[in-house]
Design a protein that fits this description.
The protein has 574 residues and is of the alpha/beta class. It folds into three domains: 140 residues, GIY-YIG endonuclease (3-Layer(aba) Sandwich), CATH 3.40.1440; 213 residues, P-loop containing nucleotide triphosphate hydrolases (Rossmann fold); 194 residues, no CATH class. It has 19 helices and 20 strands. A hairpin with a 2-residue loop joins strand 2 and strand 3. Helix 1 packs antiparallel against helix 2 and helix 3 packs across helix 4. It is globular, with a radius of gyration of 25 Å. Pfam families: SLFN-g3_helicase (PF09848). It comes from Microbacterium foliorum. This is GIY-YIG catalytic domain protein.
Length: 574
């Protein structure tokens, strides 16, 4: 029987409480230290001793005033570590409290009867929610950006190994003040590149500021929490560059809720290039989306691109990229890359990306992520999608319980997505950029609908920031620029007429049906020519991103009749 016991965060209350039950001094428990806006979650086998340590340490000055202790006669150390990790993630995703924990000790280990114990965690959650410590349900929390982008994650084995190796490499590089370095993390969609960047920034901040009582001795990162590393990191100036505006603002909200991180750490490449001082470390998410020299969304940004080039390099060269700015303004960079997610000509060129990867490998600063975290069908599904979009005929892999469906009728797919949203939330329609955005609310006289297929009339996303979580998003269609970098539970993907089969059965791009004006510019490495085959690669990448957004399932509708027949065969075997 699980019991949640309450006491004040004072020496007198802890001493009195310890005498009431032997389990208060010698039993595995999980506890919360709670204040009006701050909260700490811990686990221990000696609750009284641990509370006294907190009362003698920095937690006493953190505005914490009460304690909750979760006790169950069937708990053991493994259960408590797991419950502690769940509560930290849920509290972080709920957003009511700033979480004072470090992120180095979260566990996802296997143990006897784990799934049975995890059912009881939900009872603990609901009891704490009844006390007002949570404001939302578990599904609401787990569908939120605060949860998905939180630095409080139990990493996969290959993510944890990568983080450990990256910190090792960074500390070695930082120990030589005059050296510069570039580290590269490569991974397919859903392998957790964004999470690695966010996790690392929190971990480095924790190493910089740690007190001995906060260290999780069982953590694989505990070896980094030593005085010499704390001293080396004490003046570390770091930033996270995120090229996509919507994702950048979502991460800024997470940083606003996370102690030791600050939303002003999350920047554009322009802000790094224009900063008043250099950085020790710049992490770049979706590095492939950094710009070459191209026509920017506004005249002032075109001028700023030129001004930054002149300021940093003494001249405005067309060959300079935003990656050059970042390397010029920082001693060390961590670049997270998936070249197959480049979707516009002004993204960094494949040649530049391959050179960056090659150099990192030569310097033993290259790290590969392989475990699929987003799509429950696994890495084989991602490879299947990419091969199918290259015009190959890959066999359909074993998808387990992953819900992959093909639809001949858009109305039925739309209804299925609505049903899944009602069941599990976070289910949306998305499409290739094959229709003009005539319903854009910024137009003087916006038209009512953008996409009309099978008697269905649809609008593009009415906003371009945090569209997935906006009130009307279920009735709209998201473009690549609103969903790249995000997770969905179910994605209903409309493959538009911009991708089709020609008379010989070859997969081709249809330039007249591809409506992203910025996606057809002769710019950067394409300034001397941009062919239909070049466009095809970007369109294939767009659909590769869209078809790998759904964690639980992907539904597919295809406009071109010949391509529809082929993809139906790929997805259904008939």
């Amino acid at each position: 029987m699980t019991d949640i016991r309450h006491l004040a965060f004072t020496r007198e209350a802890v001493a009195t409480w310890a005498q009431a039950d032997a389990r208060h001094t010698n039993w595995p428990v999980v506890y919360l230290l709670v204040g009006s806006r701050k909260l700490y979650v811990g686990e221990t086998t000696s609750a009284q001793k641990r509370m006294r340590q907190h009362l003698d340490g920095p937690k006493r000055e953190a505005g914490l005033n009460s304690i909750r202790v979760v006790i169950d006669e069937k708990f053991n150390k493994s259960v408590c570590l797991d419950l502690e990790s769940h509560l930290i993630r849920w509290f972080s995703g709920d957003g009511q409290f700033s979480i004072l924990n470090g992120n180095d000790g979260l566990s996802d280990a296997q143990y006897y009867d784990r799934e049975l114990y995890r059912e009881s965690f939900r009872e603990v959650f609901e009891a704490l929610r009844a006390e007002g410590l949570f404001t939302r349900s578990i599904p609401q929390i787990e569908n939120s950006d605060l949860f998905k982008l939180s630095p409080f994650k139990a990493l996969t084995d290959d993510q944890a190994i990568a983080v450990s190796d990256i910190v090792d490499g960074l500390l070695e590089d930082l120990a030589h003040p005059h050296e510069r370095s570039t580290l590269v993390v490569q991974g397919d969609p859903g392998t957790g590149k964004t999470i690695i960047a966010i996790f690392l920034m929190k971990l480095l901040a924790d190493i910089r500021d740690y007190a001995a009582i906060d260290i999780e001795p069982d953590s694989m990162f505990s070896e980094f929490f030593v005085p010499e590393n704390r001293e080396m990191l004490k003046s570390l100036r770091m930033a996270l560059v995120i090229p996509q505006q919507s994702l950048r603002e979502s991460v800024q909200r997470v940083f606003r809720k996370t102690p030791k991180l600050d939303p002003e750490m999350v920047l554009t490449a322009f802000q790094v290039g224009d900063a008043d001082a250099d950085f020790d470390l710049v992490l770049v998410d979706e590095t492939h989306r950094l710009n070459q020299r191209s026509n920017q969304p506004s005249g002032p940004l075109n001028k700023k691109f030129s001004d930054i080039n002149v300021r940093l390099f003494g001249e405005d060269s067309l060959d300079r990229t935003q990656l050059d700015w970042i390397k010029a303004r920082s001693k060390h960079q961590l670049l997270l890359i998936d070249a197959a997610q480049s979707v516009r000509p002004h993204d960094l060129s494949p040649l530049t990306l391959s050179e960056v990867v090659r150099n990192a490998k030569d310097e033993h600063r290259h790290f590969r992520l392989t475990t699929q975290m987003r799509v429950h069908a696994g890495a084989d599904y991602v490879e299947f999608v990419r091969r199918m979009l290259r015009g190959e005929a890959p066999p359909l892999p074993d998808l387990g319980e992953y819900d992959l469906r093909f639809f001949d009728d858009l109305g039925k797919m739309r209804a299925a997505i609505r049903q899944k949203d009602a069941e599990v939330g976070l289910s949306r329609l998305v499409a290739g950029y094959a229709w003009d955005w005539v319903s854009n609310p910024k137009r003087s006289e916006p038209a009512e609908f953008d996409i009309e297929l099978d008697g269905e009339r649809l609008r593009w996303n009415s906003i371009d920031k945090d569209w997935i979580n906006s009130p009307g998003s279920l009735e709209e269609v998201g473009s690549i620029h609103t969903v790249q970098g995000y997770d969905l539970n179910y994605a209903g993907v409309i493959i538009g007429p911009d991708l089709r089969l020609d008379a010989s059965g070859r997969l081709v791009a249809s330039p007249e049906d591809y409506r992203d004006k910025m996606g057809k510019l002769r710019t950067g490495s394409f300034r001397h020519g941009f062919t239909d085959d070049d466009l095809l690669v970007f369109i294939q990448n767009v659909y590769g991103v869209l078809l790998t957004r759904g964690m639980l399932g992907t539904y597919v509708y295809v406009c071109d009749s010949a391509l529809r027949t082929r993809i139906r065969e790929h997805l259904t075997g008939s």
